[in-house]
Amino acid sequence: MVATSPAIRLVRLRKVYGQRTAVDDLSLEVPRGCFFGFLGPNGAGKTTTIRMMMGLAAPTAGEIELLGFRLPEQAVEAKQRIGLVPEESLLFDRLTGAEFLEFSGRMYGLARNVARERTRELLELFELDQEGGKLIADYSKGMRKRLAMAAALIHRPELFLLDEPFEGVDAVGARLMKDILLDQIRRGATVFLTSHVLEVVERLCQRVAILHEGRLVMEREVGDLRGGGESLEDVFVRVVGGAKTAAGLDWL
């Protein structure tokens, strides 16, 4: 691993499903210590890209490098340093929240006593300490997202891959999660985030990229958007082809 290498480096990444190209010739670099927003309309290829970085989908072509490690050759080394929150939280419903967190810590190589202590601290941090003994099957969607975030943090990763982490989370829980992620940026970690809530992305992220029909159509510093007088929503709608309105329907 080269400490000065980008946190994420994608080179001409491509993923084809049958006759459909989900990701098309995507090249992207995310510097370390950056809060990076990865945006696009539904079906643009965002989740497919993250699944390839997670090792859950094999690229049709191209290169993936995370924290200086090449995938798939060095996938184990990379995954030890990555925190994942997929769009659909991959949790074990028949475990309690506390059991799942301790299991996650052990999977990342933490000693049992360390995993247990961090589990206690994370449950308290995410306001789940009263729910730690409850089966995950009985958790709400927002609680599941908070637990998934806690599991992503337990081994103090250098890179976070987060696919719609705030979906289904109430305002208090979302604020807590945002503050924790900003703290991780301050300690030098990198966050790669997808979200449909553009106002959240604009407030949190330093840099954004927009994907449309599998291709990268824009990458820019968020500060440059503000300097140009456009909101992120304005830019997003413009670069993905505009939006229909109700003006053409007489009855509306």
Give the topology, please.
Blueprint: E1 8-17, E2 20-30, E3 35-39, H1 46-54, E4 61-66, E5 69-71, H2 75-79, E6 82-85, H3 97-107, H4 112-125, H5 141-153, E7 159-163, H6 171-186, E8 190-194, H7 198-204, E9 207-212, E10 215-221, H8 222-227, H9 232-239
Parallel strand pairs: 3-8, 3-9, 6-7, 7-8
Antiparallel strand pairs: 1-2, 1-4, 4-5, 9-10
Helix pairs in contact: 3-4, 3-5
Walk me through the structure.
The radius of gyration is 19 Å and the shape is globular. The protein is α/β, with parallel strands linked by helices. Helix 3 packs parallel to helix 5. Strand 1 and strand 2 form a beta hairpin. 40% of the residues are buried.
Quick rundown:
The chain has helices spanning 46-54, 75-79, 97-107, 112-125, 141-153, 171-186, 198-204, 222-227, 232-239, and strands spanning 8-17, 20-30, 35-39, 61-66, 69-71, 82-85, 159-163, 190-194, 207-212, 215-221. 35% of the residues lie in helices and 25% in strands.
Note poorly predicted spans. none
Q: Report, as a whole number of angstroms, the end-to-end distance.
A: 58 Å
Mean pLDDT: 91
Number of helices: 9
Q: Give the structural class.
A: alpha/beta
Count of extended strands:
10
Q: Can you list the strand order of the major beta sheet?
A: 6-7-8-3-9-10
Assembly category: single chain
Highlighted features:
252 residues, 25% strand, four-stranded antiparallel β-sheet, alpha/beta
